[in-house]
Amino acid sequence: MNRVKRGLAIVAVLSGGASRAQEFREDFNTMTIQNGVEFSGMISCGANPNGPDPEDVSMSVPGSDTWNFFSSSVYPLTWRGTGATQAWAVGNGVLYTHARRGPSDDGHAFISRRTFDKSRYLTATVKMAPDHCQDTEQGCFMGVTLIASETDYREIAFDSTGELDALGRQLYAVGRWAPCDYQLFRDANGNVMKVPGGVLYDLRLDYLGPEGGGWRYFVNGVEMRMPNVGGVPRYGEPGDFLNASLKSDPHIGFYWAAKQLGKYFEGRMDDLVVHELVKVQPFAASAQSSYAGTPPSSAIDGNTGTQWNAGAGASRWLELDLGSPTVVKKLRLLTSQSPAGQTTHRVYVGNIPAPTALVSTLEGVTSDSVWLEVDLLGRGISGRYIRIETVTSPGWVAWRELEVYR
Hints:
The protein is mostly beta strands and 406 residues long. Helices cover 1% and strands 54% of the residues.
């Protein structure tokens, strides 16, 4: 092997400024609602043998910032909860709803008139409780959605099961809803996830944008397992499954529905936040050591075909200088590793070089060209310098690419 270039290497790179991140917060102390969201028709599944399924249906959401009802040109009363059988109230930061199914009225659907940039990472968090389903059978549904049109969305949803737990509480299955497809979340044993009603659950729905290429789902801070593929558990899914990607700038929405005529469903929600995460270009990169032709700058050049290589095994570190103190919400690290095996990486953040505040430890069996993620959203982690120290690795320490998001 060629010799290792030792010592501290510092390489400056372009610091191009990123556009301003947006955060939308609805605490439900006040809420302005208007009629006006319309879409061009109804979803048709399995009706397009020569085209995308489901068919592409457009949606119009005029204005910004306030909330609108979802109304259908096919069923004019659908999603308009203005009569005596539909009710909602806002108090003490909580939105309460009562949705009764009528002849042409399933319940409520609210969509924010604020739009978000589909080219960025989007994270929507909310507290949501399915409180009471009048049906004794399966019949009630509620969820939170990132939606661009009737055929471009993902939703975390509760679906009543008709079962009760040992305390007499109604049980709800939890899953992901997309056009023409519903996937229930699974526990470690592969069983459908069911939770009792009357409890506020922390839901989180991530759209990872063009770079991340998909969706991820969290309940009470735990990432949800999708049904196994070939016996292997999976988390999240691609961004274009069944044609349900975010093609235009999306909105945040949520709804309650009672599926049986004359029956009602009640629920509540609290503290809705949507973050747009913006990629930060580090000002400089430095490393404990570097192998010839693999400088630290190769880990932040946006090219996954290049890499930084320490030219030595653990323990070795790579450090990023963001140029100024920055609130860090997410890190993505693309491995360069041979052979596969057990690795341990520690992430430190601070305002001086060689930061000492440990914010995350990544441990597990890893292999080459796999994205690892450090989720710091909501933790208020801020600093100018980020150091990734690899303390366990089966081979030389290296990274193909490191990405920082604020």
